[in-house]
Design a protein that fits this description.
Layout (H helix, E strand, L loop, with lengths): L5 H6 L7 E4 L3 E5 L7 E7 L7 H7 L1 H18 L5 E3 L15 E5 L9
Antiparallel strand pairs: 1-2, 2-3, 3-5, 4-5
Helix pairs in contact: 2-3
Bound molecules: guanosine-5'-monophosphate.
Guanosine-5'-monophosphate (5GP) binds next to β2.
InterPro entries: Histidine_triad_HIT (IPR001310), HIT-like (IPR011146), HIT-like_sf (IPR036265)
Protein name: Histidine triad nucleotide-binding protein
Pfam families: HIT
């Protein structure tokens, strides 16, 4: 049996994290190593999708719920403008294979790409 992802363990309360928002199927936490003044991860509660391509193909409504929560977090924590990043594949910097979006906002330089 494969091990739970770090995000599933956070959702289950096995690892502490600052949960800033949630909906029925998605939750949002502060990144442990922030790359911007606001750096929040928005994550489906299910761990069944490894990346955004799998999620978009199998459950576009869940992807839309995720984007909606990202927007709500950005509206709550900054002026509403934000960058939404899905690292897809190890070669692109993905380290946790439980799909998640990085919401980056506040004081972003024009060249920053996370
Ligand atoms: P990826 O590199 O897969 O796109 O993003 C994974 C993100 O998860 C990284 O930005 C990393 O800092 C964050 N992360 C990894 N472990 C933890 C943790 O235990 N708690 C929190 N809050 N974030 C984590």
């Amino acid at each position: 049996m494969s091990e739970s992802s770090v995000f599933t363990r956070i959702l289950n309360g096995e690892i502490p994290a600052d949960i800033v928002a949630e909906t029925e199927n998605v939750f949002a936490i502060r990144d442990i190593a922030p790359q911007a003044p606001v750096h929040v991860l928005v994550i489906p509660k299910t761990a069944q999708y490894r990346n955004v391509v799998e999620l978009a193909t199998a459950d576009p409504a869940l992807l839309a719920e995720l984007v909606g929560l990202a927007n709500a977090v950005a509206a709550d924590q900054t002026d509403g403008d934000f960058r939404l990043v899905f690292n897809t594949g190890a070669g692109a910097g993905q380290t946790v294979f439980h799909v998640h979006a990085h919401v980056l906002a506040g004081g972003l330089s024009e060249s920053s790409t996370h």
